[in-house]
Amino acid sequence: MIDFTEAPDIVAPKLLGCILSFGGVSIRITEVEAYLGREDEASHAYPGKTQRNEAMFGPPGRIYVYNSYGIHKAGNIVCWPADRPGAVLLRAGEVIRGVDIALRRRGNIHPTSRLAQGPGNFGKALGLLIEHNHKPVVCSKQSKPGSFTLIEPEDVPEYVTGRRIGITKNPEPKWRFWIPDDPTVSRTRSTT
Predict the structure, then answer these.
(1) Could you tell me which residues are beta bridge partners of residue 75?
(2) Which helix (H) or strand (E) holds 67?
(3) C-alpha dihedral over 136, 97, 127, 157, to 10 degrees?
(4) Over its length of 192 residues, how does the chain's per-residue pLDDT go in tens digits?
(5) pTM of the predicted model as reported, rounded to 2 decimal places
(6) Three-state secondary-structure class, residue 68
């Protein structure tokens, strides 16, 4: 079972291949990025606790949702012990259940591999709202209605790591993790 009290860069690759289910949609996670709180200038928690980022301060194993570009809802899973902020951004995934629901939320997107490609699209396909901040992620062998359920794979898939994308502050650490050659992963695949 994933230990969400570990550092985000330790938790991040363990989320690859996991299935996150909520509201009739299940997404196999294929790409994530780690954000290390007060130690990471790119993290929302870097300047300290605010109303917007308070979910990042714990407890661990909860959802942190934020508005991206004022229109998208991006989702994270909070890591590290309470009061030590950190999170793993859910960047991309494959919708494996509830494709019809995800299509209604996203519009008529084809190919369907793009339904949850990118953090905002992942959030929209899953139905994330700001009100979901602080909701627990339940680790289970099957989906639990009304809960964010995380089902771990039998084995962590092979993955690669590289610089985070879409940020200008502290992009150098290789805290982006993804399943290679997966069509759902963000189109920018640089490993430099």
Answers:
(1) 65
(2) strand 63-68
(3) 60
(4) 899 999 999 999 999 999 999 999 999 999 999 999 999 999 999 999 999 999 999 999 999 999 987 788 999 999 999 889 999 999 999 999 999 999 999 988 888 899 999 999 999 999 999 999 999 999 988 887 789 999 999 888 999 999 999 899 999 999 999 999 999 998 764 444
(5) 0.94
(6) strand
